[in-house]
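Record type: monomer structure entry
Structure origin: computed from sequence
Chain ID: A
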Amino acid sequence: MMSKKLVYRFALFCLLGLLSSGCAIPGLKEANQRLKEQNDRLVSENNRLEQELGSFRGGGGADAAVANTPERKEAAADLLIPAASGIDANVQVERTAEGIKLTIPQQVFFASGKTELTSNGKGVLQNIGQLLNNNAYSDNTVRVEGHTDDEPVKKVRDRYPTNWELSTARACTVVRYLVGSAGVAKSRIYPAGFADTRPLSNGKSIDSRQKNRRVEITILNQGA
């Protein structure tokens, strides 16, 4: 950025050049006015850039970018979920407007087209049950959601005609286990099935569909 002192030196240099070349006074006045206008524009631009730099340093730039790194997100999750909770590394934890949401990929709990819990899924739910019964959350209502991808049910269509039935059945399976085997009071937990209506990814690739097949357990804010 050009400083004010450099601008005025540049203006003086130009004026001396005009004087030495024998220019008329009106010409000098016109040149001086143009230089003044240019200087005003440079000063205004300098002030604008300094304001943007101050905003960037104040948290709208580098600091905000650092705050959104995976390391910072993990640190935020640690504040929501006790480090000793034993929650599986596959469980994504985040704060939402409704409360604390745990997102678990379908493959942790269920085989494709199935609603029976895997042994690994039962272990994960035991730890989640302990979390839900923790003093910090023992009074909160819990919603368990089942989500699928957009591919129609095929192998088990006789039992689950559509993804609505499949997603709801999976949510109910999780709720039954948390109540029956993990000690969560049935008065504070309920299931919901959303089929493929709330995708995390709109792509049609294998990875996109895999992201959409999930269970979400939300510890709702009190009074929500």
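Annotation 1: The mean pLDDT is 79.
Annotation 2: Helices lie at 4-20, 25-60, 62-67, 70-80, 106-109, 119-132, 163-180, 206-212.
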